[in-house]
Amino acid sequence: MMPHSLEQRDLRQREVVPPQQLARYQGLVIGVGAVGRQVAWQLSAMGLPLLTLVDHDLVDVVNLAPQGYWPQDLGQAKVTATARLCQSTNPQLVIHAVAERFRRSSRRTLPCFDQATHRLAVFCCVDSIETRALIWEATKDHAAFFADARMAAEVVRVLASDNPVQETHYPTTLFSQAEAYVGSCTARSTIYTASIAAGLMLSQFTRFLRQLPVDRDLVLNLLSSELSVA
């Protein structure tokens, strides 16, 4: 049997995800837990050419159901396991897996910030307001697109910006940690909620690629089947 050509792998999405535009971008996914693993996998399936994953955590048994990790991933760095999934999905992907916390100094050490030929799209998938604020301050002057997903049980909030350097709404959502929901946002999570959150982030990204208006703040409540857009 002749091997299949990968040239047509994106044929059915080209009217929705313009390949010429997608080819101009690289992705930075910070946090590859429930939402971030889904974001990374969907970006690789879409055909993004360059991807950087940053997360210091290891795969634990409690991550298998809500985050979609495999039993053979247990004990491995989440970025390593996710990078393997992404490259098996799209062998043409160039991916960097960085098994450490994102810090302010990461802007000087991560290769995605020195990549001059591809514009940067940042996907913030962490569970701490303080970390979100750090990521925002470190990336907003370098990113062409920024998206942040927040998840609590069956409620998803996705914030997006198509012009981070001039963004005014997103910083107002970075309230102090004392005002945040008590407990990790992943304490009650499901893979289907995470998949929807990731899909909403990538939906905003593809709108951005098509030069359509980006929804800067949307909330989806799966329990009540309500979607609100600010």
How does this model look, in words?
- The protein has eight helices and eight strands; from the N terminus they run αβαβααβαβαββααββ.
- The protein has 230 residues and is α/β, with parallel strands linked by helices.
- It has one domain: NAD(P)-binding Rossmann-like Domain (Rossmann fold, 3-Layer(aba) Sandwich).
- It has an eight-stranded mixed beta sheet, with helices on both faces.
- Strand 4, helix 6 and strand 5 (143-152) form a beta-alpha-beta unit.
- Helix 2 (34-46) runs parallel beside helix 4 and helix 2 crosses helix 8.
- The longest helix has 19 residues, at 191-209.
Task: Furnish the topology, listing elements before pairings.
Elements: H1 19-22, E1 25-30, H2 34-46, E2 50-54, H3 64-67, H4 78-89, E3 94-98, H5 106-109, E4 119-124, H6 129-139, E5 143-152, E6 155-161, H7 169-172, H8 191-209, E7 217-221, E8 226-229
Parallel strand pairs: 1-2, 1-4, 2-3, 4-5
Antiparallel strand pairs: 5-6, 6-7, 7-8
Helix pairs in contact: 2-4, 2-8
